[in-house]
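Late entry, written up from scratch paper. The run itself happened at the end of the previous shift, but nothing got recorded in the book at the time, so transcribing now.
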Amino acid sequence: MSRPLAPQLSGCLPHRDAGYVPTVPERPDLEYVVPRLHAALAGAEIVGARARKPVVLRCAVDEVRGRIGAVSRRSASVVFHCGSRDLVVIPMLAGRFEIDGKDTADLAVAFTLADGRVLRYRDDVQMGKIWWTAPRAAIPGLAEGGIDVLGPAFTVDALSRLATRRREQVKVFLMDKTALDGMGNAYADEVLWAARIHPKRTTSRLGPAELNALHAAIIEVIGGATATIAARQPPLPEKVRDFLHVRGKKGDPCDRCGQVIRTVGIHGHDAFYCPACQPDADGRGFVDWGRAPR
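Output as recorded:
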């Protein structure tokens, strides 16, 4: 059995530039997955674990033992509450869960349950992290404190107060979990497309009309995606993305105007956008893709 050394909770993560925003799991996916994990696993006891990709672990795999009292979402993580300890999984970009099934090439860690079932955490890029900690322990890479974009506190005024203090590009702002608890890479693109805002627009320069459009788009896109995924009821490991308008659609025609979808790099991430629907309002010399040949 693999048993990696357990670093301290305050251990270092890879250094990133100040503007870097990690790719986090998407809120609509977690809203679907977490209740189903709770329904299936509340009361189950973890009696063993094995690691195929120990790089994701921030604990010794043999330490993970306990009865799961509940499963909940904590910002961008899934928390399995086991009494005096929490099993915290930050799935990041590609992490997904599966109960039973079979070992696959992307298996990272498998947790054996006393009833014979197996909870598998799959991650083909090994970006996710797993912690075995005291409840509510501070965890590097797990930001908290952002406004719940599906909650009553998320108003246009609240969004405006946040935005006026931000000097970074708007896509970076949307993905900052300390500001907004709501979206990752894919849905930030979808929100900006719905609001007709360029992903490199400086956040503090957003005017009242843009902020109103952004607020409405966040609620519409995140709420709509949450409802769509719940209605589809996909298997736990499956991520539904076929209803998105711009994410992953480079070279395809825009659903709204027919212009070709383009991409642009933003602090280590790619942003998908329509150059006609989301023009460069800051005028900082970006390529005018609207006039470029297809």
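The helical segments are 27-41, 156-163, 170-175, 185-195, 208-232.
(Scratch paper discarded after transcription.)
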